Amino acid sequence: MTVALIDNGSLEPAATRNLRVVAAELAATLGLPVHPVSWKHSDRIPLAALDGDPAGTTLAPFVRAHLAAGERRFIFAPFFISAQGAIGSALRRELDALQREHAATPFDFIFTTGLADAGVIAQILAARVRETIAIASLERPPVLVVDHGGPSPASAALRNRLADETRAILGDKVSSVTAASMEGGDHPHNHPLLADALAAQAAPSASAAPTAADVVVALLFLSPGRHAGPGGDIAEICGAAETAAPALRCHLTDLVGTHSLAAPALAAALRDTLSHHHAPTLA
Q1: How far apart are CA 69 and CA 94, in angstroms?
Q2: Which pTM value belongs to this model?
């Protein structure tokens, strides 16, 4: 049985590094190999950008190589915010296609439950918001919980639920918690978009003069990349909003997938799955 931690993949080396760190934590916890695998993209990262380590492993070559070595059973731990969203569905379709491609040497695969099922994401978001409030010495700021935005209403519903849970955890530490998406404005479920939500926070009331507006942008992303990394799309959207409204100050949180609660939750899901599939004895 081969076990892998799988993410969407990114051309950003920091995303592959984080995937490898989390996979190594899972391996140490469980006492068995856990392979870091990306669905796409990471095999195009230059060697030098990963400090001489090989480029990231992607799904199809990973499965084919292990099939050639005689493996027939795979367990994937999804390193996604929503394993039931568009990416999770695309992953399963690709694995189904690989099963058809290798009909002569059949294999099976299963996915563990993800972080959303473990109930830790809202805890992590709240912790990240508290960190940001402390660092910037903020007083009851509004919070925008921001995801990528995409075609799946299920992902948007999860984002909304997590924002509600985060609001309940933070209580009077914040003035409000609002869900928003980075992009995907052609899908109603992604609204409000981050740019619009920031503009709304910066807009003074009709009876008040403009005042400084501090907003915490809570990143519903697991790893740094071109969206949530330094200088990425979200930072650019926030910068543009601050330029348009000089009183606005955006304070971005750290990421979900780098928090200390993430790896133990994934390890627990893997342990549960392995225990039900006659896996080797765990450490």
Answers
A1: 20
A2: 0.89
